[in-house]
Amino acid sequence: VHRMDIQDVHFHEVGAVDAIIDIVGSVVGLNLLGIERIYGSNINTGKGYVFAAHGKLPVPAPATAELLKNVPIYSTDTEKELTTPTGAAIITTLSDEFGSRPLMTVEKIGYGAGTYEIEMPNLLRVSIGSIKKNENEIKLVETNIDDMNPQFYDYVMDKLFSSGALDVYFTPIQMKKNRPATKISVMVSQHDLKKISDIILNETTTLGLRIFDVKREILDRKIDTVETEWGNVRVKIGLFDGKIVNVAPEYEDCKKIAKEKKIPIKELYQKVSEKFYKED
């Protein structure tokens, strides 16, 4: 905002004691309350003008507007500054998402009142509770590509998985004019949707994405370890209503042992599975 090196900026309001107390107090309070995740509503900035050290400024003030980039904001007819630079700095730094209130069980509610007398309640409300994660509701992101270097797909897949994708798969398809192409499909949680979408748009030649709501049924899972004559192998176990229905030796463990001991990997797979069921 000041268009100069940060070392040369002299803060006025933001450097005041009350602003420092606001920021430090917020962080300390969140830590004491054990808050793991923060959701913010859309931000009401107010409108009109505010007087500061630099004179008469429009609402939101330049520093506030800069801090609120990429955050959903709005303004009503209230002729007051409803979001200050300090408040904007706190909420934009600490909040994980903005928008509608998530599905949650509210356990505690707190209010902070401002000094302005305006036509609506001049309050900040904070609700503390718990969110029940529904792992069965996810997003499916898809795009069709017919003009990308096929060597790039390996890199794109690795980057998607490392950024939170639940699954990534490629499907060969035929597009218009009978051109061979590849459909990229990515399953992802709502929380990681934007990050995954940005990767696909930046790293591939696609011009757009399709995004679907998807429901899935998943087994309960756990990891066990089987001791063999060649070493320990982890085993992935799938349970349905508490009953074991699937058992799969961990491929990377089997691959490593098969290479070191020079034994067929299919033999190791079979031995691990047999020993697991025998011990179970």
TrEMBL record:
This is Nickel pincer cofactor biosynthesis protein LarC. The gene is larC. Keywords: Nickel. InterPro entries: Ni_insertion (IPR002822).
